Amino acid sequence: MGNPFAPPPKKTLARHLLFRTTALVAVVTFMLSALAAYASFNILENEVDLRLENAQIRMNFTKNWDMNGSEGPCSDSIIRIALTINGAAWQDNNCPERPTIDEVEAMASVPPGVASTVDAKGLGTYRILTQDGNISIDGQLIPARLILAIPYSEVLSPMRTQGIVLGILTLGAIGVAYVGTRQVVEHSFTGLKRLTETAQKISDLPLGDSETEVSLRADLSHDDPDSEVGRVGSAFNHMLDNIDEGLAARRESERKMRQFVADASHELRNPLASIRGYAELSRRDFDELPDTTKQALTRISSESERMSTLVDDLLLLARLDAAPDMAAQTKQPTDLTEIVLDAVSDARAAGPDHKWLLQVPDEPVIVPSVPGQLRQVLTNLLGNARTHTPAGTTVRTSLNVEPGSVVLHVLDDGPGIAPELQPKLFERFTRADEARARVPGNKSTGLGLAIVAAIVQAHHGQVSVTSQPGRTDFSVRLPLRSDGSQ
Fold first, then answer.
1. Are 49 and 108 contacting, i.e. CB atoms less than 8 angstroms apart?
2. 94 burial via Cβ count (<10 Å: 0-12, 13-18, 19+)
3. Which residues on neighbouring strands pair with residue 125, listed in sequence order?
């Protein structure tokens, strides 16, 4: 169970309950100890006063008082002294010791009939009771103040002992309360700890992935269903059931949507091929056609080609969605260096108004890949840099080998991408902002980067972008092994 004195982690409810309960017990115990000490003090002081009153009742005023006090053993700790009007002190006995005249005068300052505590100078603190009367000295009655005194240590000494005992008992009670409360709190929070652990595991799940299933549930077998923990746990599990059902519904909806897109795209290919074919057939008599017909045929051919490209992209995305792991497909060792060289060469031919720079290792870089797909990744990235940056932009492509992975960078010094657009740049049908849409007539489908992300993910890699005016860097990291380990 661990150290019973170790407090729970900071800022937890268990820690607050432990310290507050212990503090409450400490305050209550201290107050009870203080009340017990106060009651004991009053009892001891009342006992001393009662002894003084009984001694006063038994005091013999008519006996012959001796200036030097009586001889013999002490019968008790009460000092009996008479102070005459001429300042002479007469003591009934020598117990516990004979005070000086100054000490006697300090004792005699107490008003008659009221017991009081007096510091008798060098003699110490005494509880004093005085009475005015006459004493017999050598057969003569002389007016005097009779003083009865008991050392106050008879009150303080037991109080010191009792204070030590109460202090030990108080500290013991606080320690027992701390350990006991900690055990009770730890036991009471066991159910909440299980809920927390389950919630933490669920929070680590990629809930944004439509294929994720929430199969975890909180274990409530040890909790009373009517308790607070049991009720919270039941509500928690019910919420997880709803989340799992919602994810299942989303998976089914996405499956139907992907199927619809795939079917629609497949069905569109034949009509588009026919349109393009008839457009090309009509262009054989192009010179004999009116200008308006020529323009219409040119637009039909151009738009059919763009539509065919869009359909092909949609079909590719549908295939990637249907088999996102790509492990079921046949992967082959692919020389990424050769792909980069060919793709940059094609981009240089397609965009002669851009400056294309290349940096690759001297030796081949072999990665497992589905044939043609990494070529499409690089083609899309280079095409994105070409179509969304103005003429004269420098595009640098580099390939670097790191431990366990290879990193591909496509970097341009164009106007950059708006910060609010960057988080959703790899989503489907995301269009670049006007700052990067500089090529006249550019009609991007918004699927190029989505295809890049899907292919890279299928190869267990990561793609990212950092952009600011004058520097946009697309980075693709791919593992050198087919299982995706780094």
1. no
2. middle
3. 119
Tokens of 398: 């580099």
Q: Cα–Cα distance between 423 and 416 in angstroms, integer?
A: 14
Q: Which amino acid would we find at residue 375?
A: R
What's the gap between Cα 123 and its chain centre? 65
Question: Residues 242, 288: contact at Cβ < 8 Å?
Answer: no
- Going residue by residue through the chain, which has 486 residues, state the pLDDT in tens, using 9 for 90 and above: 456 566 777 777 778 888 888 889 899 999 999 999 999 999 999 999 898 888 887 766 656 565 555 444 445 677 777 777 776 666 665 555 667 777 777 888 888 888 888 887 767 788 888 888 877 777 778 888 888 888 888 888 899 999 999 999 999 998 888 888 888 887 777 777 777 778 788 777 777 666 677 777 777 767 677 777 778 888 888 888 888 888 788 777 777 776 776 677 667 777 777 877 777 777 777 777 787 877 887 888 777 777 777 777 777 777 777 665 544 456 788 899 999 999 999 999 989 999 999 999 988 899 988 778 888 899 989 998 998 899 999 999 999 998 889 999 999 999 988 888 888 888 877 765 544 444 444 556 678 888 888 889 888 899 999 999 999 999 999 998 655 444
Structure token digits, residue 278: 């008839």
- Residue at 422: amino acid letter: Q
Residue pair 101/119 in contact by the 8 Å Cβ criterion? no
Name residue 398's beta-bridge partners: 359, 409
Strand partners, 131: 146
Could you give the count of Cα atoms lying within 13 Å of 250 in the half-sphere of its Cβ?
Answer: 13
Which pairing describes strands 366-369 and 355-359: parallel, antiparallel, or unpaired? unpaired
Place of tokens 């366990």: 404
Tokens for 22, please give them. Answer: 């212990």
- Residue 258: both structure tokens together: 């992907």
Of 64, 58, 89, which is closest to residue 76 (Cα–Cα)?
58
Going by their DSSP bridges, the two strands 116-119 and 89-91 should be labelled as unpaired
Q: How many CB atoms within 10 Å of residue 52?
A: 19
Q: Is the dihedral of CA 80, 84, 87, 89 positive or negative?
A: negative
CA distances from 113 to 56, 101, 107, 154 (A): 10, 22, 13, 21
Rounded Cα distance, 136 and 14, in Å: 77
pTM of the predicted model, to two decimals?
A: 0.49
**Taking a C-beta distance cutoff of 8 angstroms, is the pair 142, 84 a contact?**
yes
Half-sphere exposure of 252 (CA within 13 A, CB side): 6
Return the beta strands (E) in 21-108 as ranges.
79-84, 89-91
Residue located via tokens 């492990």: 327
Q: E strands of 323-439, at which residues? A: 332-335, 355-359, 366-369, 394-402, 405-412
Could you give all domains of the chain from N- to C-terminal order, each with its CATH number? 59-154 (3.30.450), 204-322 (1.10.287.130), 332-479 (3.30.565.10)
